[in-house]
Structures are given as structure tokens and as C-alpha cells.
Amino acid sequence: MAGQDVIFIGNKPPMSYVLAIITSFSSGSLREVVLKARGAAILTAVDVEEITRTRFIKDLKVKNVVLGTAEMPPREGETKSRMISTIEIALSRA
Amino acid sequence: MAGQDVIFIGNKPPMSYVLAIITSFSSGSLREVVLKARGAAILTAVDVEEITRTRFIKDLKVKNVVLGTAEMPPREGETKSRMISTIEIALSRA
After folding, report:
1. Closest by alpha carbon to A42, among A92, A91, A87, A74?
2. Are A84 and A72 in contact (CB under 8 A)?
3. How far is A93 from chain B (nearest CA, A)?
4. DSSP-derived secondary structure for A45-84
5. Cα angle: A4, vertex A9, A12; to 5 degrees
6. Which of A6, A21, A58, A68 is least enclosed, having the fewest CB within 10 Å?
7. Which parts of chain A sit beneath pLDDT 70?
8. Which of A74, A83, A43 lies closest to B50 in space, CA to CA?
9. Across chain B, which distance is largest between two alpha carbons, in Å?
10. Which candidate in B11, B15, B50, B88 is best for mutational testing of the A interface (most A CBs within 10 A)?
């Protein structure tokens, strides 16, 4: 069965997410890995995809990129919720 | 003739790029605006697209997103060139 793994990109070093992608695709029947990130981690997500594709998985393809907006609860001491940009990068092997 | 504008996203405030997009689409025959950014400006580019779509141009569509890598010259005092992630976001009106 074609599987899909979701990897949430946060503030760990990019290489830890690269390894997570490599591990996911090594597990056999997996067809797709989706990277999800918001705010500053969007840059990390793009870096992770590019490092993985250019250095480790040469046949990696970006199948789809979805941009969006999420509402975040107000910071402590503030009253207004904040809008934050999001990205989803769907990856597959050719 | 269907035109295409390219807007390079740098470190100005996001709203100045939002205005550039609105101005481009107001100019008549234009069919597509492409946002190009690299490095930290990738986050700005996504924010700019989301602000424009959610607040100003309701029928804005993300037609295509291309991720890539560019080689930057070494910083002063360094010898190795650096790799930097890039994004191109193609926008159109539905």
C-alpha cells in the first residue's frame, strides 16, 4: 500500500530532518513524505528539501507545494491572535 | 499579450512587496507575477503571497512553486562558496 509520512519541521538542526526523510524513504513501500512547517521554520523546510535532493536522494521530486496561513494564539500579555504563514512540501521518489 | 512581472523579494517590509503585486495586477493585461527570493527572504516571500491573497486579492492563485539552490560567493575572509535555498512563487488571478 502506498504510504505517506508527515515530518513536522521545527527548530532542530536541518540534518536531523534530512535523516528523518532518508529513513522514511528507506522503509520500503513509502511513496510520499510531506514536510510541514510554519513561520521561521519555513526556511528550514526548504533547506532540508534542497539538502536532501542535492546531496542524498538524487531522484527526489517536489510533487507539490502548498502555502497557507494559520492562526496562532496571542502571546502572553497580548490579546490579539497572530497570523502565521505555513508551507507543506510533498516529496516523492521518481 | 499575456505579460509576466518578476518581483525580487529582499529585506524591505512585506507590505512594500504586497503593493508591488497589487500594482502589477492593476496594470491591465498582466497574467502572472513571479516572486523570487533566496535565504531568509523565502519566509518574507511566503508572507507576502499570503497577505496579498487573504487580505487584498481574493482570487489570487498560487500557480506554481519552484524550490532551488543557488551558489553564493564566499563571505569576506572565507574561501568556500555557500549554498543558499531559493524559491519562486508564480501567482495568477483566477
Report:
1. A87
2. yes
3. 16
4. HHHHHHHIIIII-TTEEEEEEEEEEEEEPPPTT--S-EEE
5. 135
6. A58
7. 1-2
8. A83
9. 49
10. B50
List the grid coordinates of B67: 524550490
Rounded to two decimals, the pTM is: 0.92
Per-residue pLDDT, A76: 87
Chain B residues lying within 8 Å of A85, measured CB to CB: 43, 46-47, 50
| Residues contacting A59, CB < 8 A, separation 6+ | A93, A94
Rounded CA-CA distance A41/A36 in Å is 9
| Residues linked to residue B75 through DSSP beta bridges, in sequence order | none
Dihedral (Cα; B43, B47, B49, B51), 10-degree rounding: 180
Task: Cell numbers for A47, please give them.
Answer: 533547506
ipTM (interface pTM) = 0.89
| Angle, CA of A35, A39 and A43, to the nearest 5° | 60
> What residues of chain A lie within 8 A of the CB of B54, using their CB?
69, 83
A37 close to A45: Cβ distance less than 8 angstroms:
yes
Residue A51 has φ and ψ, to the nearest 5°, of -65, -45
Helix (H, G, I), strand (E, B) or coil at B9: coil
The tens place of each residue's pLDDT in chain B, 94 residues long, gives 468 899 999 999 999 999 999 999 988 777 899 999 999 999 999 999 999 999 999 999 999 999 999 999 898 888 889 999 999 999 999 7
